[in-house]
Specification:
With 265 residues, the chain is mainly beta. Helix content is 15%, strand content 38%. Strand 4 and strand 5 form a beta hairpin.
Length: 265
Amino acid sequence: MNFEEKIIERLKRLEREVERLRVKESPDMSSYLGITAKAADSAKLGGVNASDLLSGWIPASGWKIYQTNWVNNVTGAQTLYSVGDKIKFTEGGSTKYFYVVSAPTPDSLKLVGDTTVGAAGTVLTNIYYSHATSPVGFPQWFDYTPILTVSGGTAPTYSEFVNRYCMVGKMVTVTGHWYNTSGGTAGAGTNPIITTLPITAADRDYFTGSGFMYQVGGLTTGIFIYMNSTTQAGFNQITMGAYIAGNDQSNATRYLSATFTYEAA
């Protein structure tokens, strides 16, 4: 069939569709447009169901636990996933959520968030990942328990010790609220109180964030946070620039609260 014959054939098809419309028949445009059948949503979207895509989640499969909060057998670990991506899967009978914090090998991912409990080689199910800022159901904020130290002294403890973090891409935001009214371990020493970070930082030796601290009968001041390493941070007085030492949290009634942001490694 030459070009002119193809044009004539198309015109004839169009005439038939116009005639069907004239007699109020339902037109079948699939023949005219060359469409043989309606594709399923998953076929149109490369195997992803429209409902999953609308919720912000993309399915994956075949992952296994490598070690605690590491998964392997991940296709495209270094090319498909980025630090800050969100992950969810079923493990130990419950749905767990994570952030990706590194993709160090071609087939594994390091995660933070909830905790994997299965043995190495445990096959995971209902696996999804997301590049979206807020996929449906993702908790965003996770609790963690930092380790406090005072070099050559004693780190204080707190009856209320709330610490949380979230990620947006490689930006990590941490918030801490530490409060004590009686008992516990009093801080001691002239060296700074140091806290561990939930996620390794990309850099060190800079100031970020803000907060407030006090203790009865002692220092009361606004504070800012000093990133003294890629895994730890300290606290400095806004007014004098001096660090918050163990002795500054030695009274039974003591309080320290701060929020700060840094770049993940």
